């Protein structure tokens, strides 16, 4: 075997290996980011759903309490501020935690849709308890 043929086979194999390794690495990174993001969104939606259920119980208890309407509105206003701060913190802290090489691969998604159960409690007062439950089941 000539030196030229051996060299071309060696460098051709090395170039093929580098190319295939690069594309396999990109595929694995994309898959990692997708699965991690899906897990984060699932966790966030479950957390949002549980938080919404807790707020329903809290507001039902507030309705049964002997607090004035003004005090009830203060509690709701404080809860809204806490919720908005929580939402901003999650978005600000979650994605910078990804490795730098994966940030470019992050898919876009609908944060408002993921947190809709909480938005329904804060911004859309259900007229009846049954109607509020139906709204959450439809989401």
Task: List the defining traits of the structure above.
139 residues; mainly alpha; 6 helices; rod-shaped; disordered C terminus
3D structure, described in words:
- There is one protein chain.
- The model is unreliable at 126-139 (pLDDT under 50).
- The longest helix has 62 residues, at 3-64.
- The protein is rod-shaped, with a radius of gyration of 26 Å.
- The chain has helices at residues 3-64, 69-94, 100-103, 111-114, 116-123, 129-138.
- With 139 residues, it is mainly α.
- α1 (3-64) runs parallel beside α5 (116-123).
- It has one domain (34-138).
Strand content: under 5%
| Structural class by secondary-structure content | mainly alpha
Tally of strands = 0
Kindly provide the radius of gyration, computed on alpha-carbon positions and rounded to a whole number of angstroms. 26 Å
Order of helices and strands: HHHHHH
Distance between the termini: 69 Å
Uncertain parts: 126-139
What is the averaged pLDDT score? Answer: 77
Number of domains: 1
In short:
The chain is mainly alpha-helical. The chain has 6 helices and no strands.
What's the structural blueprint in terms of helices and strands?
Blueprint: H1 3-64, H2 69-94, H3 100-103, H4 111-114, H5 116-123, H6 129-138
Helix pairs in contact: 1-5
